[in-house]
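$ ./design --mode recover --in tokens.txt
reading tokens...
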């Protein structure tokens, strides 16, 4: 592949003349040993920092959430005041250090000192040490301030293997911490201060106003929170718990492991209802049989005379009387006597005559 195109892709992310020179030295290497030596020059352990994420930028973005929603001048004013106050707080905090090493670096050094008790050391009689920790084995050279695990070179804080060798030579690990963690370097970082500024009424006139950019209205409510990754943990609200690890319970059969959508009883009920529907359809497709009501036979036919169809009528009912129909019951043939009789009265001459 063309080295110029490779460097063009690298230059988008890693800039600087030193990287460019080192890259072309690797390209022009004629043998493997020279190429490996030039590659080691690219990845030097001169950073003396163990930061592998973007938390510093994320913390700054979290502080300016409220300011970002304001106009450009008001936003810059709020950020200026925030930075001016933060630099003062950091200088006052550094003056209270109990040691010459920053508290964060000292805390990590103490963790490595505790881990060094689990290491086994073999000394070669000069300045070389062979240290075994768990299933790993590394070599340490205190004269060159190096360990094959490269943690000491990258972070500037002695690793557990180097601390084990230092204890063997009765040396203090604090003396081998990089100078970038000293109090003097920290104070030099925050020695620059921001000068106070008068109010807007006293700003110089005649400068063209800073106009905001053209705003393109997006659909929906504007977002104020950044989009988080899928694997990024979410903040829990006070008094609420997440559903992570919770097992669902079916509201139909009350069994753990599934919900009502995947309930096996639901599939059984659906199958039985389908069978019942098929039976109903089969019955409807068969010809109708006579229905007996007492001794009267009623038959149904789907034949509708022409010109007599009405909306909503699909068939015509024909009633055929039986051959032996019961006789009608008359009032005169009743077993009761329905003639009127007067109540007995002594003054009635007819009654007296009787």
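writing sequence...
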């Amino acid at each position: 592949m063309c080295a110029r195109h490779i460097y063009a892709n690298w230059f988008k992310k890693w800039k600087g003349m030193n990287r460019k020179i080192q890259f072309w030295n690797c390209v022009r290497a004629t043998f493997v040993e020279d190429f490996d030596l030039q590659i080691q020059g690219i990845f030097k352990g001169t950073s003396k920092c163990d930061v592998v994420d973007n938390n510093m930028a994320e913390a700054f973005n979290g502080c300016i959430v409220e300011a970002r929603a304001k106009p450009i001048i008001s936003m810059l004013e709020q950020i200026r005041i925030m930075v001016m106050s933060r630099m003062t707080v950091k200088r006052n905090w550094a003056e209270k250090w109990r040691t010459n090493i920053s508290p964060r670096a000292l805390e990590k050094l103490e963790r490595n000192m505790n881990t060094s008790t689990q290491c086994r050391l073999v000394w070669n009689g000069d300045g070389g040490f062979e240290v075994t920790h768990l299933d790993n084995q590394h070599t340490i050279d205190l004269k060159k301030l190096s360990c094959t695990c490269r943690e000491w070179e990258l972070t500037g804080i002695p690793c557990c293997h180097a601390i084990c060798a230092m204890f063997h030579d009765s040396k203090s690990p604090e003396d081998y911490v990089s100078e970038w963690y000293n109090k003097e370097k920290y104070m030099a970082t925050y020695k620059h201060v921001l000068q106070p500024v008068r109010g807007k009424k006293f700003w110089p006139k005649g400068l063209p106003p800073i106009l905001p950019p053209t705003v393109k209205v997006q659909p929906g409510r504007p977002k104020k929170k950044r989009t988080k990754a899928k694997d990024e943990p979410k903040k829990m609200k006070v008094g609420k718990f997440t559903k992570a690890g919770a097992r669902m319970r079916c509201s139909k059969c009350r069994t753990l492991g599934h919900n009502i959508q995947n309930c096996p009883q639901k599939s059984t009920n659906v199958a039985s209802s389908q069978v019942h529907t098929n039976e109903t359809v089969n019955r409807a497709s068969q010809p109708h049989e006579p229905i007996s009501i007492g001794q009267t036979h009623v038959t149904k036919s789907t034949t509708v005379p022409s010109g007599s169809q009405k909306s909503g009528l699909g068939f015509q009912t024909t009633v055929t009387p039986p051959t032996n129909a019961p006789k009608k019951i008359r009032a005169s043939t009743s077993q009761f006597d329905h003639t009127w009789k007067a109540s007995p009265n002594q003054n009635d001459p007819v009654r007296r005559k009787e």
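exit 0
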